[in-house]
Amino acid sequence: MIHNETIVAQITSPGKSAVGILRISGPQAKIVAIEVLGKIPRARLATYSTFLDEHKKVLDKGLSLWFPSPHSLTGEDVLELQGHGSPLIMDILIKRILSINNIRLAKPGEFSERSFLNGKLDLIQAEAIDDLINAETESSIRASLNSLQGHFSLFIQDLINIIIKLRVNIESNIDFSEEEIDINIKDIINKAFSEIHHKFLKIKQTVIEGNLLKEGKKIVIAGFPNSGKSSLLNILSYNDRAIVTDIPGTTRDLLYSHVNINNIACELIDTAGLRDTDNEVERIGIVRAWEAIKKSDHVLFVIDKTIEKSRQKKICADFIKNLSNNSIQVTFVLNKNDLVNEPFNFEKKEGLSFISISARTGQGVDILRKHIVKIEKNKNKESVFIARRRHVHQIDLAYNEFLLAEKNWIFFQNIELLAESLNIINRFLGEITGRFSSEDLLKQIFSSFCIGK
């Protein structure tokens, strides 16, 4: 899909800099080269050039690069001009280029959108450009690059290919009645179901990890009132986000803080103190605290270490019992250790993790940070990609449809019904890579990009 309109934008950050770069894409790029440079430069070769105004007077000097269609970023003719990074020079050059007919300023993300529409990138790769620009940790950068290089797309395409192969097999039998379905096709379907199920579970786990990298690992800080939860939030986030007082029940709602702990993106969530109370507002806060705990990736349960050891042990046992989800990582943070004069360290007791700290003095907090990082880095991240909520949603839709198809096949063994379900699954997955996509979806995705991308 080659556009009739030619677009231009500055692709370097606005403001003063050593170099400023303009990108022009579309059918008029050749005219821009002739008008501004006096000629079309040699393809894919950096050429020292003079940038001219309409009266052939020099506006600037720099490098020009010419990428003829289809071997370019967008699949169209592309010209890049690299001049001095003065905002005034950039503005004058843009005005000069806009004075040529049928050229306009690019919209946010329009270069990437044209790359997608012209088959240079799929939708996952296009989104990965934006994710790479906005990445805040090294792990996020690596995951974004995995997606940009097409690794995530191949992962999805492998599953689509298995589904297509099954569709081909069953649709070749579509004219037979239910009584005439032979054993061979049943074996093919059952074998394919097993393979598809395995692929879906692997993709779902990978996408969950990729979504964690994008949105941050959810770490809930929980505990009884006045145990030091809010103080811990403040010291981990290097900011006085939470109000800290000696009055029990000060924190009554969820308080969020996005932090980078040794290159691990985390969303810290401070919660109301867990206790029985007659206060209606505080009780609502406690309900929300438990909801947050059950949706978290890691719970830092803060305990006042000055209370009796037997009570500490009972608090730990009761919390683990009430949690009822063994997949959530729990670390018991023994706060106020400076008041009991015991070592600041990490201990493993009866399968539970304990770290002694002082949120007041900061002692032991570095041990806690290293513990959080160690848990995250122990997970296998070699094949992780950045996953957006859109990807998670589409995979959930596809997987739920597959489970329904599997159930219907067991009960009815109807090939036509199975073929229709496989078609729906294929469409859900195809919307991830952009094989099937609406104009509204594309507008929503690319409008979030910066201008020049």
Shape: flat
Low-confidence stretches: none
Biggest sheet statistics: 7 strands, mixed
The first-to-last residue Cα distance is 18 Å
The SSE string, one letter per element, is EEHEEEHEHHHHHEHEEHEHEEEHHHH
Task: Show the helix and strand layout.
Blueprint: E1 6-10, E2 17-25, H1 29-37, E3 47-52, E4 58-67, E5 78-85, H2 87-98, E6 103-105, H3 110-117, H4 123-134, H5 138-148, H6 151-171, H7 183-215, E7 217-223, H8 229-236, E8 255-261, E9 264-270, H9 280-294, E10 298-304, H10 309-323, E11 329-335, E12 346-349, E13 352-356, H11 365-377, H12 389-412, H13 415-433, H14 439-446
Helix pairs in contact: 4-5, 6-7, 6-13, 7-12, 12-13
What would you note in describing this structure?
Keywords: Cytoplasm, GTP-binding, Hydrolase, Magnesium, Metal-binding, Nucleotide-binding, Potassium, tRNA processing. The chain has 453 residues and is α/β, with parallel strands linked by helices. The protein folds into three domains: 6-119, Gyrase A, domain 2 (2-Layer Sandwich); 124-212 and 388-434, tRNA modification GTPase MnmE domain 2 (Four Helix Bundle (Hemerythrin (Met), subunit A), Up-down Bundle), CATH 1.20.120.430; 216-377, Rossmann fold (3-Layer(aba) Sandwich). The chain contains 14 helices and 13 strands. A seven-stranded mixed beta sheet has the order 8-9-7-10-11-13-12, with helices on both faces. Strands 3-4-5-2-1-6 form a six-stranded mixed beta sheet, covered by helices on one side. The radius of gyration is 29 Å and the shape is flat.
